[in-house]
Amino acid sequence: MKKSFLRIAIHITIAFIMLYRYMIAKGFDNLGQLLSFDPILIPILLAGLFLSIYVHIFLHEGGHFLFGKLSGYRLVSFQVRRFKYSQADHSLHHMQAASPLLAGQCLMAPPNGDYAELPYRGYLLGGILANALTGAALYSSAFLMEPKVGSLFVLLSFVPVWMALSNLLPKGQNDGAVLREVSRSLPARRLLFQQLEMARLIEGKVPFADLPDAYFEDLKDAQYQKTFLVDYFYMVAYVRALGELEFEEADSLLRAFSAHRPVKESVYWPIYVMESLFCDALFGRLTNAEEKYIQIQAHPLLKRYWYANNRIRAAYAFFCRVDIEEAKKLLKQVSAGAENPPEGMDNNIEMLVIRWLNSYFEH
């Protein structure tokens, strides 16, 4: 709570300083003079500020792409909200089940070479630099214009400045946090590069079962449990186990994840809650499953994930509630969304598990 308050205070302070310097430069005696325009423009301005967020998300990811290319990285995919371009098949498509946590993402594969020698700062800082430069350009341009137009440019500059600060100041698993993490240790840097390499393979439709086993050897190494970058490997290993219908292995991986990592701090926490409920249902841990269900219904983000995954809802209905008709109904609905599997899931694996669940109703 204290860190969140401090971050908000920093943003507000910087915005105030920017506005105050502009007022002084333009000779304003008070804020009222600056804001003396038609009130009907206020909702238009607010709408413009909101829409500009999407522009700056695009520029942020474009910054990762530009500085990544300059560092020798290769594009894997480029996503802004629900629109995603995949380099593997040169396709642009609209995602129905994009993660609510993901505003944008520019995935790039690192150049070949020794992990200890590969560049990473340019790629990680590219988005921050793009937002910072855009904010600086908008703010500087304001001083060249007449006051009322210039004041709008000052306000519009707040969005990219805010995004630059939000990504630079380490929080969760943002760019600043990843940069700090990989700068501290070689194991974390190795995990970053392996994650990018594995993402390229997955984006290229390589089956999860065919992913090199070497990527998952570090899951049992204590030194890798110290970094949040290992969380991704737990999730991919879990999906691989599901693809083999090795439910005991999948359950074991989730249990190891929660035992070794602060799960609630991970960006994969919503997926963990959903999939652990699925495993609880399969293995008859009814009390655990019911507790998670109550938690999901009380949490808006978890609830969104819940309604996006009929497989888990069907398993809960069948194994926990013994509501066979509801389970059948949910499984039938899966076919309609077969091209849009839940976040982090491979479509073939998702349908394989669905067919396994359906086998309960074939006799």
Proportion of beta-strand residues: 5-15%
Low-confidence stretches: none
Largest sheet descriptor:
4 strands, antiparallel
Number of strands: 4
Number of helices: 15
What would you call the shape? globular
Q: What fraction, in percent, of the residue positions are helical? A: 55-70%
| Mean pLDDT over all positions | 87
Structural class: mainly alpha
Describe this protein's structure.
The protein is mainly alpha-helical and 363 residues long. It has 2 domains: 2-168, no CATH class; 186-361, no CATH class. The protein has helices at residues 2-25, 31-34, 41-70, 121-142, 147-168, 175-184, 186-203, 231-243, 247-260, 269-282, 286-298, 300-307, 310-320, 324-334, 347-358, and strands at 74-80, 83-86, 91-94, 104-109. Strands 3-2-1-4 form a 4-stranded antiparallel sheet, sandwiched between helices. Helix 3 (41-70) packs antiparallel against helix 4. The chain starts with a helix and ends in a 5-residue tail after the last helix. The mean pLDDT is 87. Keywords: Membrane, Transmembrane, Transmembrane helix. This is Peptidase M50-like protein.
